[in-house]
């Protein structure tokens, strides 16, 4: 049993902090919700599941914070999970100190376990090409959800899926950014798409000729299906489901798994692998690291540098295979 979510969000300090995150820090609803869940878990660990607001945040000290952290380590939680929770609570208490609700931040200076930095999964150029060709090669009856009442739906699903994959690889955007695209976000004349990334930050993502052609073909067929559904006005998103609604991130993930399997690739590869592949292939071809950082929308260059490790690993593999004294 845990403290009810509404009871934690109803705490005056928590409510004020969440408003600050949304209004001043421009945090997404997903981020705000994660903060709330971490704070609830902390409150439950300190005061027990029967505790109710308002909580006495000033009672917690460094020992309390260390005990909270130790609980996750004993439970075998991943360092990334533990680090995120400590970061959430450090931000929460930093806000409370600033607002003079508490005197000390018990999470300030608390050491968290280092995250193991794994190299991202990357598809080769040949594997990407096989994936991008999968929608066109898959039989029509399997190419997507078939709306029997909507003439031409199967062909739209095929073109839509091809355009989605092309756009993911061509721009390196996140799957959530792709799902939120509207027609107005795509400028065919200049060949760029405007996306909203983490923290609601906007950036421009150039896309190539294959993505341009695939997207044009998908929109043309989509508009015919939209009319066949008897809908008026502009569609609610760039990519639609068979009911005429915006295609969700989860649906896009399922579709990609299907095409991965059809192309003979690992179906467990996530859509993020196309983003990783985009960055790695750009760097392999000599792109500047700063440019790749801008294209990916990374705030810190250190985040982008993980891809330099991937390219170095690739160079070492080639070296070991080709050099007579490797």
Summed up, what is this model?
This protein is mainly alpha-helical and 326 residues long. It is built from 14 helices and 3 strands.
**Fraction in helix:** 55-70%
Strand order of the largest sheet: 1-2-3
Biggest sheet details: 3 strands, antiparallel
In total, the number of strands is 3
Strand content: under 5%
List the helices and strands in order.
Answer: HHHHHHHHEEEHHHHHH
User: Could you say which structural class the secondary elements and strand pairing correspond to?
Assistant: mainly alpha
**Count, helices:** 14
CATH class of the largest domain: Mainly Alpha
- Domain count: the total is 2
Architecture per CATH nomenclature, i.e. the level-2 architecture of the largest domain: Orthogonal Bundle
Textual characterization of the structure:
With 326 residues, this protein is mainly alpha-helical. It has two domains: 5-98, DNA polymerase, domain 1; 125-271, Intergrase catalytic core (hpI Integrase, Chain A, Orthogonal Bundle), CATH 1.10.443.10. The chain is 56% helix and 4% strand. The chain is built from 14 helices and three strands. Strands 1-2-3 form a three-stranded antiparallel beta sheet. A hairpin with a 5-residue loop joins strand 2 (192-196) and strand 3. The N and C termini lie far apart (58 Å). The model is unreliable at 142-149 (pLDDT under 50).
Features:
3 strands; three-stranded antiparallel beta sheet; hpI Integrase, Chain A; mainly alpha; globular; 326 residues; DNA polymerase, domain 1
Write the layout of secondary structure elements.
Layout: H1 5-9, H2 12-23, H3 29-47, H4 62-74, H5 79-98, H6 125-137, H7 153-171, H8 175-179, E1 186-187, E2 192-196, E3 202-206, H9 209-228, H10 249-262, H11 272-284, H12 289-296, H13 301-304, H14 306-322
Antiparallel strand pairs: 1-2, 2-3
Helix pairs in contact: 2-3, 3-5, 6-7, 7-9, 7-11, 11-14
């Amino acid at each position: 049993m845990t403290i009810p979510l509404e009871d934690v969000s109803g705490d005056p300090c928590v409510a004020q902090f969440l408003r600050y995150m949304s209004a001043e820090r421009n945090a997404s609803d997903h981020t705000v919700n994660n903060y709330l869940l971490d704070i609830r878990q902390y409150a439950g660990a300190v005061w027990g599941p029967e505790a109710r607001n308002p909580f006495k945040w000033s009672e917690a000290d460094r020992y309390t914070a260390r005990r909270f952290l130790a609980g996750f380590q004993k439970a075998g939680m991943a360092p990334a999970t533990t680090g995120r929770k400590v970061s959430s609570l450090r931000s929460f208490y930093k806000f409370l100190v600033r607002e003079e609700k508490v005197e000390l931040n018990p999470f300030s200076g608390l050491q968290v376990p280092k995250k193991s930095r794994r190299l991202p999964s990357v598809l080769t150029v040949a594997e990407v090409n096989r994936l991008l060709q999968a929608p066109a090669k898959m039989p029509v009856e399997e190419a997507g959800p078939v709306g029997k009442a909507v003439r031409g739906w199967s062909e739209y699903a095929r073109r839509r899926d091809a355009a989605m994959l092309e756009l993911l690889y061509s721009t390196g955007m996140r799957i959530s950014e792709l799902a939120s695209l509207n027609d107005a976000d795509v400028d065919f004349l200049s060949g760029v798409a405007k996306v909203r990334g983490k923290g609601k930050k906007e950036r421009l993502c150039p896309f190539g000729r294959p993505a341009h052609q695939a997207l044009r073909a998908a929109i043309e067929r989509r508009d015919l299906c939209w009319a066949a559904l008897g809908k008026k006005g502009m569609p609610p998103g760039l990519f639609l489901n068979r009911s005429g609604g915006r295609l969700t991130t989860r649906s896009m993930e399922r579709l990609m798994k299907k095409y991965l399997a059809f192309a003979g690739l690992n179906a467990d590869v996530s859509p993020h692998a196309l983003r990783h592949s985009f960055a790695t292939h750009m760097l392999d071809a000599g792109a500047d690291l700063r440019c790749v950082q801008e294209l990916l929308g990374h705030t810190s260059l250190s985040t982008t540098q993980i891809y330099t490790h991937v390219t170095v690993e690739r160079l070492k593999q080639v070296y070991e295979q080709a050099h007579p004294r490797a």
